[in-house]
Give the backbone structure.
Amino acid sequence: MASAVLKVAVAGLSRCSRLTLLRTRSTKAPLHQGLPGSLWKLGRLNHIAIAVPDMEKATALYRDVLGATVSDQVPVPEHGVYTVFVELGNTKLELLHPLGEKSPIAGFLQKNKSGGMHHICIEVDNINAAIADLKAKNIRTLSAEPRIGAHGKPVMFLHPKDCDGVLVELEEA
């Protein structure tokens, strides 16, 4: 499953960022890849978000069965979700469950009863410059301005139709 999720995550990067990712043997290459003269840089994968119909069951899977460290469940009313973060060492999983009837996750779960991957989150060093640059390249955003995300940092979601079918969240590092 991790391999499939990573392939989807990388596929989401391809068109959105207009960068080509190449596998190299070097582990010393920088993780950010910006265009020459760009005012912002793409950073590391922050998390992969998974919508879950049963937060307690999903949390127990990662904590009790797989042995991961998980956070407490936290309501994020401005995004209409409850979140639990699963620590993986090199990144995180964000478990999402609806908070209220108008939650975007409620709609996602109506279409996907068992839940599933909702979005990927990639760090950027300057979210406002990234948004301006991406809008100039005809990448649509899901809101007019960045909002504060679950980590207390500004975030912006990019339209999945402009990102190879993947909902991409940018988070300021």
Remarks:
- Residues 50 and 95 are 5 Å apart (CA to CA).
- Residues 1-15, 17-32 have pLDDT under 50 and may be disordered.
